[in-house]
Sequence to fold (269 residues):
Amino acid sequence: MIREITVKSVLQASKLPASSHCLNPYVGCHHACAYCYARFMRRFTGHKEPWGRFVDVKKNTPDILARQLAHRIPSGSTLVGSVCDAYQPLERRYGITREAVRQLVAKKVTFSLLTKSDLVVRDIDLLQQAGSRCSVGISLAMLNDGYRRCFEPGAAAVSRRLKALKELHCEGIRTYLFIGPILPRVTDVGALVAEAAANADEIWGEALNLRCGNRNDVAKAYAAAHLPDDWELLAKDKAWLDGTITQLENACRRHGRPLFGFYNHHQPK
Ligand code: SF4
Fold:
């Protein structure tokens, strides 16, 4: 279901480690990732559809954002797309993210975009104007597109995301590779860093968060991918995660890229 809504605020204070504010032009996400933690947003919308099957379009985002920016410019960095992907397929039709980015650039706001879509390259002209005030993260949890279809059915193919990362980097945009979530038996952190490091200024990582009602969808994705069912034991195993983080640190060192941050949602067995 697609619904157009109006909101009173789009720029909101954030408790995320690297962001003082966040901006989400949509509620819900047609990328429909099995592991998505943002599914908690259903609670605030009344939607009964499964995660990934609904999107509310915040139609008045440009007006509200203009009003908020006229009142106050965020002091820290604003993350565009913290509980939705701001470049999900509907953005092609609505262009709301582009208009929001245009305003952030004009008002000299420091911001970061994080996406699993290559549509972001459409906005390179604006991102170039922002210079060092903006960075763009391409999120990847795997290189195998067969696994991608099981875990992230609506997101862009892996090759398209890697191509977008390269294009952004070549056009002088500050970029980062966001490896997340790290899925046991799916995510090869060393291979991802090796594939993307040349086009990423920095690397971020995130553990799998199983505390948000996503367990059954993740289990279905593992079954669809014909992977062993020990994934949950591994995801909750601190030693396994510590070993994976060490692999990630080593890969970053090998490729001369800093591991800027790691979101750890370790859940004890
Ligand atoms: S792209 Fe991000 S917000 Fe969208 S479903 Fe996937 S994890 Fe969730």
User: Anything to note?
Assistant: The two ends are 37 Å apart (CA to CA). The pocket of iron/sulfur cluster is lined by residues 29, 31-33, 36, 38, 84-85, 116, 155 (CB under 6 Å). The longest strand covers residues 174-182.
